[in-house]
Each structure stands twice: as structure tokens, then as C-alpha cells.
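Translate structure to sequence.
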């Protein structure tokens, strides 16, 4: 398992490993979900939905990706190796969509924890989003959630 993770993250394999992008996204989603010290069933379901929407994965592939992402998350020393993949492979509008997904995840359990917000600020900065873009995405997601609750 560790060999597969390392092969997906090694720079030499960058051009031949399309799986690196979903893995990076999945690890970052898990980092956000675990930032508050809890991992709810709502968060897990949302991560599966987000991965399905973005990468069109079947259930088996999604499960395998989640296992690889969980292992990579435990083995990693930081976020940089994962945010680098996002920076290399996504446009600025796509990064804004990604951060909105992360905000949805942070709000999934009904409240925004300070650790989740700090994690999102760090990820946003690492993927090249301005403070303004980060706050705009947060407000947009919060307003969408409030509209759904009415």
C-alpha cells in the first residue's frame, strides 16, 4: 500500500499518473474533515459525493481512493505535496470551486470549527487563492446552506 502511495506522489511519475489528482483532492478533503478532531458520517458521505462529482468514480474506485487517501494522509508530513497537484492541474476558477467544496465539507456537521477554518485558510493560501476569494467562497456556501435550511 505504501509503495502505491509513494509512486502516486513521486515527481518522476507525475505525467503518467492521472490518479495523483484525485488522490491529492481526497487527502485534502480528509484533512479538512478531520481538522476538528471528528469525522462524521455526513462528512464521509459528502466526500464520497464530491469525489464522484469531480472524478466520475464508481463505488469500488471511490472506496480504493479513500483508503489510499487515508493512508497517504497518515504518512504525509504536510499539505504541500497535495496542494502542488491541485496547483499544477486546476485553473483558478476550478480552485475556487474546490475551496467551495471544502467549505461545504467544513459546514457539513452543522457548525464551523476554528480548526476547520484554519485548515481552509492554509489550503486556500497553498493553492494560490487570495483571502478575499476564500472569504467569498465561505460566504457563498454559508448563504447556500442557510437558504436550504429555510
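Result:
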Amino acid at each position: 500500500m505504501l509503495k502505491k502511495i509513494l509512486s502516486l506522489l513521486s515527481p518522476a511519475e507525475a505525467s503518467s499518473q492521472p490518479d495523483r489528482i484525485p488522490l491529492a483532492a481526497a487527502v485534502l478533503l480528509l484533512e479538512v474533515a478531520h481538522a476538528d478532531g471528528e469525522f462524521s458520517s455526513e462528512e464521509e458521505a459528502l466526500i464520497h459525493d464530491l469525489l464522484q462529482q469531480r472524478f466520475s468514480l464508481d463505488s469500488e474506485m471511490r472506496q480504493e481512493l479513500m483508503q489510499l487517501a487515508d493512508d497517504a494522509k497518515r504518512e504525509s508530513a504536510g499539505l504541500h505535496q497535495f496542494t502542488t497537484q491541485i496547483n499544477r492541474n486546476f485553473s483558478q476558477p476550478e480552485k475556487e470551486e474546490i475551496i467551495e467544496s471544502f467549505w461545504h465539507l467544513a459546514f457539513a456537521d452543522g457548525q464551523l470549527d476554528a480548526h476547520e477554518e484554519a485548515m481552509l485558510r492554509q489550503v486556500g493560501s497553498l493553492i494560490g487563492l487570495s483571502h478575499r476569494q476564500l472569504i467569498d467562497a465561505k460566504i457563498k456556501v454559508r448563504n447556500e446552506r442557510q437558504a436550504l435550511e429555510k
